[in-house]
Amino acid sequence: MTSTTIELAPVCKALDDIASAMERALAGITTLRALLSPEEQKQETEFNPKDPRNKYEIGGLMKLTERGIEICYRLFDAGKTRYAVKELMDISFGASDHRFKAWEKAGGINREKMPLD
To answer: Distance between CA 71 and CA 116 in Å, rounded?
Structure first.
């Protein structure tokens, strides 16, 4: 019986090259998406999901304000996923999922939008 020895350095280099190429491809896709849909980019700059006015503290926990809830809904209106809203708003997935279901119940994209300020 013979054992095959694989040198790890070339394998690691190949994996790094593949990962780097994938990152460049994703960056290119993001750029292309921004070029093809400037409306979406404009919509995102109308408000800041991390604005401190979107949350308040109660008992050591951060909760969404009415403004923060509306920001979540507008992100869902823009086609963002629950995972994307979780990251953008810096909230838990459970909170994002709860807001998504409330957004759907309120009529989804056809709901009545509330003023931000």
So the answer is: 8
Q: What is the pLDDT of residues 42-94, one digit of tens each?
A: 554 578 899 999 999 999 899 999 999 999 999 999 888 999 999 999 999 99
Phi-psi map region of 44: left, alpha, beta (phi>0 left; psi -120 to 50 alpha): alpha
Torsion of the alpha carbons at 80, 27, 87 and 56, rounded to the nearest 10: -100
Per-residue DSSP letter, 62? E
Which pLDDT does position 79 carry in this prediction?
Answer: 87
Decide: 33 and 41 in contact? Cβ < 8 Å.
no
CA–CA separation, 106 and 108 (whole Å): 6
Quote the pLDDT of residue 55: 95
Rg of the chain over all Cα atoms, to the nearest angstrom? 21
Look up tokens 């009529």; give the residue.
107
